[in-house]
Amino acid sequence: MRFRLQAFALHLTGSACALTIVLGGLYFGWYRWPGWYLTGVLRVLLIVGVVDLALGPTLTLIIANPRKPRRALARDIAMIVAVQIVALGYGAATLWQGRPLYYTFSADRLEMAQASDIDAAEIALAHNRNPAFAPHWYSLPRWVWARLPDNPEEVSKIVGSAVFGGSDVIDMPRYFRPWSEGLPTLRAQLGTVGDSKYLSKAQKLALATRMSAQGWPPDQPNTLIMWGEGGVRRLLVVFDPATLKIKAFLRPD
Questions:
Q1: What pLDDT is attached to residue 251?
Q2: In Å, what is the CA distance from 203 to each residue of 67, 207, 232, 249?
Q3: Cβ density class 60-76: b for 16+ within 10 Å, e for less
Q4: 223-227/109-114 β-pairing
Q5: Which of 115, 100, 102, 113 is nearest to 35 (CA)?
Q6: Which residue in 196, 191, 188, 220 sits closest to 107, CA to CA?
Q7: Secondary structure class of 210 (helix, strand, coil)
Q8: What distances in angstroms separate CA 180 from CA 97, 170, 202, 248, one per listed residue?
Q9: On the chain, which terminus has fewer CB atoms closer than 10 Å, C or N?
């Protein structure tokens, strides 16, 4: 039994280290709050965690028989590790493709734009027309103003595309402007938590209570809803009315 436990401990330690290095790098680079919540990545992490931290070491515990030939034991463990590497690769690739690249303000809302939302043609246009905001493989999340263009025909195309599930202006970095330039427009869109049409009565009451407890007046126009993946996940963003600095991201649930 001691041999089995040693094999299990070694396998678990190695799996935990690999998982920490890969997922930790992605988390600290792209998925820090509010990214991890708005993208809904917990389901991916659960799959990877079950395979790499539970299933893999447990199988090693089962097959690690000291009487088994070392060559056969090494082959069996190698097969288990191969499955773990595939699972970790799947998780890392999924997180990489869905990593947050921009937190945007556009028109009347805050939204997240992920790497998977921006196609290659749009990236090429951004590098040509607006290189300061064009994404690179190493780009970290940025707060930007996704301003609609001045040309009415272009606006009509963008709105029509968004209505039918296509690309919206938040997926078009060729139109992005500095976050600071959009603050006057953002100020005009702020409202009280009680005025939000995207929250239930119970959610409004709970959020107002939390805001009051932290010293943010819930009856002042200092909030805006921020939307995440699929337009389902959302947060209440609380702004400082004077400076428009973000003070908090509050979950409505």
A1: 93
A2: 61, 6, 15, 14
A3: bbebbeeeeeeeebeeb
A4: parallel
A5: 100
A6: 188
A7: helix
A8: 28, 16, 34, 18
A9: C
Side chain identity at residue 18, one-letter code:
A
The Cα diameter of the chain in Å comes to 77
Give residue 218's identity as a one-letter amino acid code. Answer: P
Number of residues written out for the chain:
253
- Token pair belonging to 62: 């089962």
110 forms bridges with which residues in the sheet? 105, 226
User: Residues in the chain with pLDDT < 70?
Assistant: none
Q: Which of 97, 130, 120 is nearest to 167 (CA)?
A: 120
Residue 47 pLDDT: 81
% of the chain surpassing 90 pLDDT: 55
Cis omega before residue 34 (within 30°)? yes
Alpha helices, DSSP H, located in 27-119: 35-39, 42-49, 56-63, 70-97
The Cα-based distances of 201 to 194, 237, 250, 252 in angstroms read 8, 18, 16, 11
- Rounded to two decimals, the pTM is 0.87
pLDDT at 222: 94
The single-letter code of the amino acid at 59 is L
User: Count of CB atoms within 10 A of residue 95's CB?
Assistant: 23
How confident is the model at residue 144, as a pLDDT? 98
Torsion, Cα 185 188 190 195, to 10 degrees, reads -140
